[in-house]
Design brief:
CATH topology of the largest domain: Trna Endonuclease, Chain: A, domain 1
Strand content: 25-35%
Order of helices and strands: HHEEEHEE
Number of strands: 5
CATH architecture of the largest domain: 3-Layer(aba) Sandwich
Strand order of the largest sheet: 1-2-3-4-5
Length: 164
């Protein structure tokens, strides 16, 4: 009889620790709202993924009159490097790559928005790079099917008209 009591207690303790670890994970790395629209859900998942990789996410959906940047992060291993992240999420498993949607126009808009962010925050001397995170997240899945992170996916473009 005492063996069963001990096993029951051990099982409850293991369940409690598992729930505690899930709560800690959400507190430490962020929450993904599975009821949100696919784009916001992808951004939340990407922010969580970046935090797990050691990045510090400093802004979500940073927007001004000329464009929007999905995520702005700082790489803790290179503290003076600011990473501007464009997240593209597809709600399908069909062929096609989400990153293909970051065309030259989109790159120019992101670059201009990044330059304005750097100017507003007096960070023009900081190094920066532009990453793209591609996420395949089917509507029937609780987690993404596939995630790819492209570091330095593109160079700054279209700044000549910004500084004149």
């Amino acid at each position: 009889m005492s063996g069963r009591v001990f096993c029951g207690w051990l099982r409850r303790a293991a369940d409690f620790i598992a729930r505690l670890l899930v709560r800690y994970d959400v507190w430490r790395f962020g929450f993904v709202d599975h009821q949100a629209k696919i784009g916001l859900r992808g951004e939340q998942y990407a922010a969580r993924m970046l935090r797990r990789q050691g990045f510090r996410v400093v802004a979500h959906s940073e927007a001004d009159f000329g464009g929007e940047i999905d995520l702005i992060a700082v790489d803790r291993r290179r503290p003076r490097e600011i990473v501007f992240v464009e997240v593209k999420t597809l709600a399908t498993r069909k062929p096609g790559h989400p990153a293909e949607r970051v065309d030259d126009d989109k790159q120019a808009r992101i670059t201009r928005a990044a330059a304005r962010y750097l100017m507003r925050n007096r960070l023009l001397e900081a190094r920066c790079r532009f990453d793209v995170i591609a996420i395949w997240w089917p509507p029937d899945a609780g987690e993404p099917y596939k995630v790819e992170h492209y570091r330095s996916a593109f160079e700054a473009t279209g700044l000549d008209s910004f500084f004149t």
